[in-house]
């Protein structure tokens, strides 16, 4: 077949999709949010532990989704748990996706207004961004995945180069002592470290779009391993470069790290400019992913056609982005989203798998 | 209670709701308009629905030769006899004791051949075997390009197109004995795609010459050419060329359907075909490549693509096309791989500058001077001191005048062109700076942008980037760096949606095809390129 008519994505596209969904605002704020909880330089340990926990949950979600080939969680939840309870659960998931989309776009607007466009009204940043996202999301999962594939290598390259240059500030003593206050702070920071992996819930819909769903485990673990590695690098370089005291006091520690040194004789003296550029593109991907998931959820739950749902989603996301009154509110919303993600994880994949196993193995029902 | 009050605090004000409403309405309206426009333009194209229309047009009442010489002659004269350039030479055929008439049009036949050979043969040598068996009769005529026509209208049309036509008493059909042989331009070097190293041959306006140029590229029995008649009023020949054992049959089918559904009364140039068969006619990007170079066409055929050649134009079309193809030249393969790869990357860089240069200037100067090195920013701002316009207007003044200059340069007679370049480029640029209308730094930016867009090998792709550059400038003028990035993302979104005959436009970058990356930014050594592009899903993947 020459022209593809099925809306499926390849394995590598699925991996990049997951990466770009998870890699969002966290890359700029994560060092602060975790270190604030812990107050020790051990946050890199927390990221590692949190990453492994997230990988396990992803494994569970993939395994569950693989039982229902070609179906997203919005479709198979009803078959497992019954129409009404699953509708409530999935609606919760959709609300969650909308909130995350709103949160991401709001943090983007805050960063843009702070660093690039001082004095511009906030709607002038948010609305064009949502419109651009609408244009992409209307193209379906294939277009989205392709844009992700373009943005992804640029992101990785610029991030690694920026971190590489920041090595001149890197002081290993900032990362010591390891486990100076025992294991407790690590466990304490675990909650906020799981938060930075917000968005891994898309696994439950992504597997349905894969051309080769049997490779889903590989794709999804690969997809989460990249943000996992990048977060780890970020936290090591930011804390190693800035020390925990300045990290706790800074709003966007990663940008502050990159701003704090100059490369003389280069066209852009400070790498903050390329970093901002790729971060904005990354946020676009991130936002489009949640936008798409939320629209998909509504359209599949209520059997609407997806195009009007996407249009309808525009004002909803805009309002969600405008709800926080200040930047403190934005971060509070971020924390709330994290807790909600945790609760959703308990409710959706764990509960669904539990019921599914119970019905399949215990009651021998055909689901 | 406190929970309730905190909820109330966070309910956005009414103005935010108004903005939300606007945010909703604008995309809906834009889509409406887009769809309207799409169907409005689409009505004229009739890609799918015109099959019935065409068949009704192309079957007018058939007017067969009656077999009676006098009647047929009368019929021909009554239809086309009033043309003053039509020559009808009545000649007695001695040995048959029959009459015949030779028709031809001024300037389309070699007079000497007509006089010497053909007429001599007919008048004195043709034997009565010619009339004996009516079926085999044409085999007895010693002409190479002989064809039998049983319809008077087709006979007339062919004669007027330049064939030499023959009507012989006793034969119940017309004979076309010589191909048109009008004056042609000689084969010259392609004007729009010059190379330093490589074949200097370009297509000409004659279809048979063009196909022969393709044939002469090498021995093969797999190069197939299928001929079509296109156009409803003035018909023309069109040839699809492809490698039979390589091309994907589904792709071939698709191209054949689109070509046979062409609906226009006259196709003046292959550009007409391009516009009538492309996938998305509202996109600024071309989805069909046009080229004057036979070597480029044959290379494309060997990759599994299909070429469309039209009579009367030196531009052949290649489908499907991807964006990267527009930035590659055949020379990339003729030179050694290291310089070719570097030049190719340079071209990609140039395309980026041609697209984004002025937008970046506007966003850096007007919005974020802090992002460039301080000394540079200071010196730029210093030179801009006397400029009375905002950055956008300043850039627009210079960009628009450069575009006018360029447009004028194309239309001017050759000897004046360079002179105007000097007057326009050097003198006006210098004077504009002296007069304080623009800053000298901007002159550099605009000049670099213009030169970059010259380095794009495909002219039409360069034009696309020129148009998009202005849109990028507007984005930058409103939202600075943020707007520029938004513009880039929109462009990416558009390009990923775009397809050329089913092949995604950005392949192999996205969807990612690792094997095709050998020939993207990079031109791998030839010994490594043993496979045809995966994106074309060819029948025969290995190059052997």
From TrEMBL, chain A:
<feature type="transmembrane region" description="Helical">
    <location>
        <begin position="336"/>
        <end position="358"/>
    </location>
</feature>
<feature type="transmembrane region" description="Helical">
    <location>
        <begin position="190"/>
        <end position="209"/>
    </location>
</feature>
<protein>
    <submittedName>
        <fullName>Spore germination protein</fullName>
    </submittedName>
</protein>
<keyword id="KW-1133">Transmembrane helix</keyword>
<feature type="transmembrane region" description="Helical">
    <location>
        <begin position="43"/>
        <end position="64"/>
    </location>
</feature>
<feature type="transmembrane region" description="Helical">
    <location>
        <begin position="273"/>
        <end position="292"/>
    </location>
</feature>
<keyword id="KW-0472">Membrane</keyword>
<feature type="transmembrane region" description="Helical">
    <location>
        <begin position="304"/>
        <end position="324"/>
    </location>
</feature>
<dbReference type="Pfam" id="PF03845">
    <property type="entry name" value="Spore_permease"/>
</dbReference>
<dbReference type="GO" id="GO:0016020">
    <property type="term" value="C:membrane"/>
</dbReference>
<keyword id="KW-0813">Transport</keyword>
<feature type="transmembrane region" description="Helical">
    <location>
        <begin position="115"/>
        <end position="138"/>
    </location>
</feature>
<dbReference type="GO" id="GO:0009847">
    <property type="term" value="P:spore germination"/>
</dbReference>
<feature type="transmembrane region" description="Helical">
    <location>
        <begin position="150"/>
        <end position="170"/>
    </location>
</feature>
<feature type="transmembrane region" description="Helical">
    <location>
        <begin position="84"/>
        <end position="103"/>
    </location>
</feature>
<feature type="transmembrane region" description="Helical">
    <location>
        <begin position="12"/>
        <end position="31"/>
    </location>
</feature>
<keyword id="KW-0812">Transmembrane</keyword>
<comment type="similarity">
    <text>Belongs to the amino acid-polyamine-organocation (APC) superfamily. Spore germination protein (SGP) (TC 2.A.3.9) family.</text>
</comment>
<feature type="transmembrane region" description="Helical">
    <location>
        <begin position="221"/>
        <end position="244"/>
    </location>
</feature>
<keyword id="KW-0309">Germination</keyword>
<dbReference type="InterPro" id="IPR004761">
    <property type="entry name" value="Spore_GerAB"/>
</dbReference>
UniProtKB/TrEMBL annotation, chain B:
<feature type="transmembrane region" description="Helical">
    <location>
        <begin position="426"/>
        <end position="455"/>
    </location>
</feature>
<dbReference type="GO" id="GO:0009847">
    <property type="term" value="P:spore germination"/>
</dbReference>
<feature type="transmembrane region" description="Helical">
    <location>
        <begin position="346"/>
        <end position="367"/>
    </location>
</feature>
<feature type="transmembrane region" description="Helical">
    <location>
        <begin position="467"/>
        <end position="491"/>
    </location>
</feature>
<keyword id="KW-0472">Membrane</keyword>
<dbReference type="InterPro" id="IPR050768">
    <property type="entry name" value="UPF0353/GerABKA_families"/>
</dbReference>
<dbReference type="Pfam" id="PF03323">
    <property type="entry name" value="GerA"/>
</dbReference>
<keyword id="KW-1133">Transmembrane helix</keyword>
<comment type="similarity">
    <text>Belongs to the GerABKA family.</text>
</comment>
<keyword id="KW-0812">Transmembrane</keyword>
<dbReference type="InterPro" id="IPR004995">
    <property type="entry name" value="Spore_Ger"/>
</dbReference>
<feature type="transmembrane region" description="Helical">
    <location>
        <begin position="12"/>
        <end position="30"/>
    </location>
</feature>
<protein>
    <submittedName>
        <fullName>Spore germination protein</fullName>
    </submittedName>
</protein>
<dbReference type="GO" id="GO:0016020">
    <property type="term" value="C:membrane"/>
</dbReference>
């Amino acid at each position: 077949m020459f022209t593809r008519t099925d809306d499926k994505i390849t394995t590598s596209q699925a991996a990049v999709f997951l990466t770009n969904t998870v890699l969002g605002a966290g890359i700029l704020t994560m060092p602060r949010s975790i270190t604030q909880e812990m107050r020790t330089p051990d946050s890199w340990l927390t990221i590692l532990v949190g990453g492994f926990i997230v990988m396990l949950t992803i494994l569970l979600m993939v395994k569950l989704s693989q039982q229902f080939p070609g179906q997203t969680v919005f479709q198979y939840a009803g078959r497992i748990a019954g129409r009404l309870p699953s509708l409530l659960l999935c609606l919760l998931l959709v609300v969650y996706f909308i909130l995350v989309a709103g949160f991401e776009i709001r943090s983007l607007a805050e960063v843009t207004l702070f660093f690039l466009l001082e004095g511009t009204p906030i709607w002038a940043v948010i609305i064009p961004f949502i419109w651009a996202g609408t244009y992409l999301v209307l193209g379906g999962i294939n277009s989205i995945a392709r844009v992700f594939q373009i943005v992804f290598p640029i992101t990785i390259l610029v991030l690694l180069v920026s971190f590489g240059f920041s090595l001149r500030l890197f002081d290993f003593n900032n990362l010591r002592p390891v486990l100076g206050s025992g294991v407790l702070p690590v466990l304490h920071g675990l909650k906020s470290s799981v938060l930075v992996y917000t968005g891994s819930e898309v696994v439950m819909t992504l597997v349905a779009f894969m051309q080769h769903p049997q490779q889903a485990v590989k794709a999804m673990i690969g997809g989460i391993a990249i943000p996992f590695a990048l977060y780890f690098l970020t936290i090591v370089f930011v804390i190693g470069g800035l020390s925990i005291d300045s990290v706790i006091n800074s709003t966007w520690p990663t940008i502050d790290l990159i701003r704090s040194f100059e490369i003389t004789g280069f066209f852009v003296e400070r790498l903050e400019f390329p970093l901002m550029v790729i971060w904005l593109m990354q946020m676009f991907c991130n936002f489009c992913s949640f936008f798409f998931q939320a629209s998909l959820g509504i359209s599949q739950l209520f059997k609407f056609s997806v195009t009007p749902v996407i249009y309808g989603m525009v004002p909803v996301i805009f309002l969600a982005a405008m709800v926080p009154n200040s930047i403190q509110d934005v971060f509070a919303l971020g924390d709330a989203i994290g807790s909600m993600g945790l609760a959703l994880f308990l409710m959706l994949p764990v509960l669904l798998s539990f019921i599914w196993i119970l019905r399949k193995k215990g009651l021998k029902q055909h689901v | 209670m406190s929970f309730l009050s905190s909820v109330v605090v966070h309910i956005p004000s009414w103005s935010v709701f108004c903005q939300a409403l606007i945010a909703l309405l604008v995309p809906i309206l834009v889509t409406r308009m887009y769809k309207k426009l799409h169907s409005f333009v689409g009505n004229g194209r009739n890609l799918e629905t015109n099959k019935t229309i065409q068949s009704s047009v192309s079957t007018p009442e058939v007017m067969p030769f009656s077999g009676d010489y006098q009647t047929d002659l009368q019929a021909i004269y009554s239809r086309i006899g009033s043309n003053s350039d039509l020559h009808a030479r009545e000649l007695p055929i001695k040995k048959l004791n029959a009459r015949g008439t030779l028709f031809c049009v001024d300037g389309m036949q070699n007079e000497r051949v007509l006089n010497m050979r053909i007429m001599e043969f007919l008048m004195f040598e043709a034997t009565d075997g010619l009339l004996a068996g009516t079926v085999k009769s044409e085999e007895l005529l010693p002409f190479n390009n002989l064809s039998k026509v049983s319809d008077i209208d087709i006979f007339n049309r062919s004669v007027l197109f330049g064939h030499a036509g023959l009507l012989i008493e006793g034969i119940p059909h017309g004979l076309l004995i010589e191909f048109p042989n009008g004056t042609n331009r000689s084969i010259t070097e392609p004007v729009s795609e010059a190379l330093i190293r490589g074949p200097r041959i370009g297509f000409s306006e004659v279809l048979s010459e063009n196909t022969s140029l393709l044939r002469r590229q090498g021995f093969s029995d797999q190069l197939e050419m299928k001929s079509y008649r296109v156009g409803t009023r003035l018909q023309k020949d069109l040839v699809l060329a492809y490698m039979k054992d390589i091309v994907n049959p589904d792709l071939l089918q698709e191209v054949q359907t689109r070509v046979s559904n062409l609906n226009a009364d006259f196709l003046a140039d292959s550009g007409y075909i391009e516009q009538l068969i492309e996938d998305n006619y509202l996109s600024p990007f071309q989805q069909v490549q046009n080229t004057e170079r036979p070597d480029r066409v044959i290379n494309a055929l060997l990759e599994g693509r299909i070429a469309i050649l039209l009579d009367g134009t030196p531009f052949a079309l290649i489908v499907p096309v991807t964006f990267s193809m527009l930035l590659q030249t055949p020379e990339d393969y003729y030179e050694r791989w290291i310089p070719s790869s570097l030049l190719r990357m340079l071209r990609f860089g140039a395309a980026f500058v041609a697209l984004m240069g002025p937008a970046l200037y506007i966003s850096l100067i007007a919005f974020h001077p802090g992002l460039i090195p301080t000394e540079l920013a200071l010196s730029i701002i210093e030179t801009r001191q006397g400029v009375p316009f905002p950055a956008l207007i300043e850039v627009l003044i210079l960009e628009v005048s450069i575009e006018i200059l360029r447009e004028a340069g194309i239309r001017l007679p050759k000897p004046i062109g360079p002179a105007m370049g000097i007057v326009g480029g050097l003198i006006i640029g210098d004077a504009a700076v002296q007069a304080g209308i623009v800053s000298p730094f901007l002159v550099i930016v605009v000049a670099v942008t213009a030169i970059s867009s010259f380095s794009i090998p495909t002219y039409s792709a360069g034009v696309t980037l020129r148009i998009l550059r202005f849109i990028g400038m507007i984005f930058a003028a409103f939202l600075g760096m943020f707007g520029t990035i938004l513009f880039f993302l929109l462009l990416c979104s558009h390009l990923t949606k775009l397809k050329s005959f089913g092949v995604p436009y950005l392949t192999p970058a996205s969807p990612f095809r690792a094997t095709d990356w050998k020939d993207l930014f990079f031109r791998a050594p030839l010994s490594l390129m043993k496979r045809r592009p995966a994106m074309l899903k060819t029948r025969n993947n290995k190059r052997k």
